[in-house]
Automatic annotation (TrEMBL):
Belongs to the thiolase-like superfamily. Thiolase family. This is Acetyl-CoA C-acetyltransferase. GO terms for molecular function: acetyl-CoA C-acyltransferase activity. PROSITE patterns: THIOLASE_2. It comes from Sphingomonas liriopis. Residues 268-390 form the Thiolase C-terminal domain.
């Protein structure tokens, strides 16, 4: 039977908005992880048959096919093709799944799935805002779509609050979850848990000196419930704050995915096998609840129970999302985001999928666990699930 294998997975450390990575062009940021993946695996870069790059803000410096532009900024030969995809927050998780499908089919043998997002240089929503300021068009949703669902827009902050209301989560519960994310992230750093997955990015400090960025900049080891409790909510009647939602972040990530033929041809040793690929869609208004259905679907297709999954990476877009997922899957909270999540470490949109995969496969390796599951809520009511087995 055909198989898809992960040979290695890397990410940059996250950069805060207008922070350490804000001086790095996004194509250079993406090129850094592409080069690191090639160097670490020792593959002939000319053997890479495609680069699939996730990116949400495809405007400005991330426009005009950022995936191809990243290849041109890297040491990869210009014979390596690339494509840029957008499945919102799950863009590079979908890149992983497209790459796996390519090698499973045998149409390609060696593909890099990657993602990049510079939220400092291409701010979230800026492409829509520029057109609105210029008086061009009426926005991304037609009147037909808005009439169909009885809304004026599809808003993730509203969706997060709808989930909090549906499941009865309080502000205190959301803040407690956020605090645990920071504490787990701080413990992971202390234990060197990220050392294998993070690749250094050359940066220039404000004073002009050169440095290497190697640590997630948004992590707050000194976070407290008192501090989180003092933050304002994003809107009246909401429990969502900047403290219990994911952090705006700059970053890039990449995963090398191959089949059996490539393993033999290039003498590669995989670290994981992809066990299941699932994507589902549901309510675009509540929007962020779909990981629950997607996970149930993935487990059913894989013939596995949630108890067989040793580690889960559920993207912390907003605290109510993983909290609802845990409840409805009857999952073990001790296996969830064991090294912290996007609330503490940042959510670089198009890079987050491959970023979480890097964290998951290396966490499986460190702990000696067997199965890991990754899922993301995504704009429009979509969710991806990927199950991997450590080798």
């Amino acid at each position: 039977m055909a198989e898809a294998y992960i040979v290695d997975a890397v990410r940059t450390a996250g950069g805060r908005r207008n922070g350490a990575l804000s001086g790095v062009h996004p194509t250079d940021l993406a090129a850094t992880v592409l080069d690191a993946l090639v160097a670490r695996t020792g593959i002939d870069p000319a053997g890479i048959e495609d680069v699939i790059m996730g990116c949400v803000g495809q405007g400005g410096e991330q426009s005009t096919q950022v995936g191809r532009n990243a290849v041109l900024a890297s040491t990869l030969p210009d014979s390596v093709p690339a494509v840029t995809i957008d499945r919102q927050c799950g863009s590079s998780q979908q890149a992983v799944q497209f790459a796996a499908q390519a090698v499973l089919s045998g149409t390609q043998d060696m593909v890099i799935a990657a993602g990049v997002e510079s939220m400092s240089r291409v701010p979230m929503g800026s492409t829509v805002a520029l057109y609105a300021q210029a008086g061009l068009g009426t926005g991304p949703w037609s009147e037909a779509a808005k009439r169909r669902y009885g809304v004026r827009s599809f808003d993730q902050f509203t969706g997060a609050q709808m989930i909090a209301d549906k499941y009865g989560f309080t502000r205190e519960q959301a803040d407690a979850f956020a605090l645990s994310s920071h504490r787990k992230g701080a413990a992971a750093v202390q234990a060197g848990a990220f050392d294998r997955e993070i690749v250094a990015v050359a940066i220039t400090r404000p004073d002009g000196s050169a440095a290497l960025h190697t640590a997630d900049e948004g992590l707050r080891p000194d976070a407290s419930l008192e501090g989180l409790g003092g933050l304002k909510t994003v809107m009246d009647g909401s429990i969502i704050t900047a403290g219990n939602a994911s952090q705006i972040c700059d970053g890039a990530s990449a995963v090398l995915i191959v089949n059996e033929r490539a393993l033999k041809a290039h003498g590669l040793t995989p670290i994981a096998r992809i066990d299941n690929l699932t994507v589902t869609a549901g309510d675009p208004v509540v929007m962020l609840e779909e990981p629950i259905n997607a996970t149930r679907t993935a487990l059913r297709r894989a013939g596995r129970a949630i108890g067989e999954i040793d580690l889960y990476e559920v993207n912390e877009a907003f605290a109510p999302i993983p909290l609802a997922w845990l409840r409805m899957l009857d999952a073990d909270p001790e296996r969830l985001n064991v090294h912290g999540g996007a609330i503490a470490l940042g959510h670089p949109l198009g890079a987050s999928g491959a970023k979480l995969m890097a964290t998951l496969v290396h966490a499986l390796g460190r702990t000696g666990k067997r199965f890991g599951l990754q899922t993301m809520c995504e704009g429009g009511g979509i969710a991806n699930v990927t199950i991997v087995e450590r080798l």
